[in-house]
Write a structure and sequence with these properties.
153 residues; 0% strand; ubl conjugation pathway
């Protein structure tokens, strides 16, 4: 997954606005993860989607540690992917892969598969019409699901 570095979001910083100071520097270096119990930090991170979670993990070492070490964060995101890629996620989990690795392996695939199943590409007449679209490798069973969905439309 590629992510843009947008810097820390003010939403994640717990600080009081000082009169006339609105920059992040006015808050000091303290952030919520330094002041709250880890369980509370994880609850806050649970509100993020997968892409935002990956971006947040690049904010600082503490956030990275909390995010990387929390299986429940990755499980929650993986279960969303599983709604589209059940067979793939279940296979990876039965092979002993962690929730995070399973998510990383299946995230792009789930986005592409969901778009195909929703009929986003139903009117495609040639490969040229797909140029610029993000694609991911799909197995034969997935293509079978997509073709069946097209036949049912």
């Amino acid at each position: 997954m590629q992510h843009e570095s947008a810097g820390p979001s003010p939403v994640f910083l717990l600080c009081e606005r000082q009169a006339g100071l609105t920059s992040l520097e006015a808050c000091g270096s303290q952030n919520f993860a330094e002041t709250l119990p880890m369980e509370m930090s994880v609850r806050i991170f649970r509100e993020l989607d997968a892409e935002s979670l990956c971006r947040a993990s690049r904010t600082c070492k503490l956030w990275r540690s909390i995010i990387d070490d929390s299986e429940q964060l990755w499980r929650q995101q993986c279960m969303l992917v599983r709604a589209v890629c059940r067979r793939e996620v279940d296979s990876d989990r039965s092979d002993g892969l962690s929730w995070k690795v399973t998510l990383l392996r299946n995230y792009s695939r789930s986005r592409v598969k969901a778009a195909w199943l929703a009929g986003r590409y139903s009117g495609v007449r040639s490969a040229d019409e797909l140029l610029g679209s993000k694609m991911a490798p799909l197995d034969a069973e997935t293509w079978g699901e997509i073709l069946q969905a097209e036949l049912d439309r």
